């Protein structure tokens, strides 16, 4: 994977520190030297490496490490901070124009992933209830317009392309006409795909710069292939001088590159990395989070993203099922059982969360939730007939006694369960009316 080697090297270097108590200046120097070597091998640009290691060294020799209970851990923290810093610090999202349409222009070398990105942006914008318009201003490559049309179809987005005989061959005019068209037809975001060359050249820059002047974009996104290695810095600088841009998009982060481009571009251009492209599909695209990328590099795993995904899957499935149930007003004991089993899955998160700071509250909630309780509930519900599970009102005294015998519990246990089920069913109705979902014994989820 990308950063694989760098991750291994950094993790190893930092792990070596962990065995030490107090750090001497020579420990720090040794570590900084290792970090420097690892970064250079990952194709990170020299000025960035110098800046990075100077900051790490200065801080590692300073008071914050001296006073720390665990100096090695503190150094890891510093390296993490500094990685976040060179990756641009904050998340930066698209800034929409106060007066629509918002104009987004894409620039970059041929093959960088501009056309693909245009489709990804359009799809995401549509999901966010925008009305994007794609503009084919790459009239250099013979089938570029057609490629954008294919992408537009996939993203269910209209493509503005030059009509035969009307401005063919003049991308500046096409881009300008497109913005006017968008204004007339109420498209609120215009995404302009521009031509790229295999290498940087003056004519290409001039054209991109002219498109920029003609359309006055709110965002100019410079798309760069993360695999281009050492050339990243020169290319980025050329585009900065030639066109200037407001943000960077790293594409092909799914590839097996050494990652130097990713680590150099934000720092060298002073422009934020806004998105990461991670595949050829239109959904392979994410907002770039410098902090998450830093922890990915430091081999701490992208734990936050992982948890977010787990939560999303959990919430969505559960919410859909509950909504369907509520529509028919039939929340049954089977649903109740399934819900508890879902919670057990969440229980597996407990281990992971124990390792994270700031997760205390969530962890406590999960601690209070008892595995054995679920096993008991399961046993009782499984002793019921299907009819009883579907319709708990059937559960009279003699049926409850039979169920208790069947699962080796007492009638009181069965009564207790039915009571909790009734509470859950009531809670489900609250959810239907728009209240906060609560799972019995767990507090808000
Ligand atoms: P353009 O010339 O800048 O418009 O680049 P394209 O969008 O045509 O992309 C060039 C090639 O790279 C195409 O084959 C894309 O499918 C592929 N591509 C684009 N983005 C990604 C990405 O994030 N990951 C991978 N693996 N391939 C990508």
Automatic annotation (TrEMBL):
Stored InterPro entries: AAA+_ATPase, P-loop_NTPase, Signal_recog_part_SRP54_M_sf, Signal_recog_particl_SRP54_hlx, Signal_recog_particle_SRP54_M, SRP, SRP54, SRP54_GTPase_dom
Cellular compartments annotated: Cytoplasm
Enzyme Commission (EC) number: 3.6.5.4
Catalyzed reactions per annotation: GTP + H2O = GDP + phosphate + H(+)
A single Gene Ontology CC term: signal recognition particle
Top-level EC class: hydrolase
Superkingdom in the source lineage: Bacteria
A Gene Ontology biological process term: SRP-dependent cotranslational protein targeting to membrane
Annotated Pfam families: SRP54 (PF00448), SRP54_N (PF02881), SRP_SPB (PF02978)
SUPFAM superfamilies tied to this protein: P-loop containing nucleoside triphosphate hydrolases, Signal peptide-binding domain
Sections of the chain in a coiled coil: none
Swiss-Prot/TrEMBL keywords: Cytoplasm, GTP-binding, Hydrolase, Nucleotide-binding, Ribonucleoprotein, RNA-binding, Signal recognition particle
Residues annotated to bind GTP: 108-115, 193-197, 251-254
Residue ranges of every copy of the SRP54-type proteins GTP-binding domain listed in the record: 272-285
MF term (GO), any: GTPase activity
Domain free text: Composed of three domains: the N-terminal N domain, which is responsible for interactions with the ribosome, the central G domain, which binds GTP, and the C-terminal M domain, which binds the RNA and the signal sequence of the RNC.
UniProt similarity note: Belongs to the GTP-binding SRP family. SRP54 subfamily.
Function: Involved in targeting and insertion of nascent membrane proteins into the cytoplasmic membrane. Binds to the hydrophobic signal sequence of the ribosome-nascent chain (RNC) as it emerges from the ribosomes. The SRP-RNC complex is then targeted to the cytoplasmic membrane where it interacts with the SRP receptor FtsY.
Subunit organization: Part of the signal recognition particle protein translocation system, which is composed of SRP and FtsY.
Descriptive protein name: Signal recognition particle protein
Species the sequence originates in: Pseudoclavibacter chungangensis
Species classification: Bacteria, Bacillati, Actinomycetota, Actinomycetes, Micrococcales
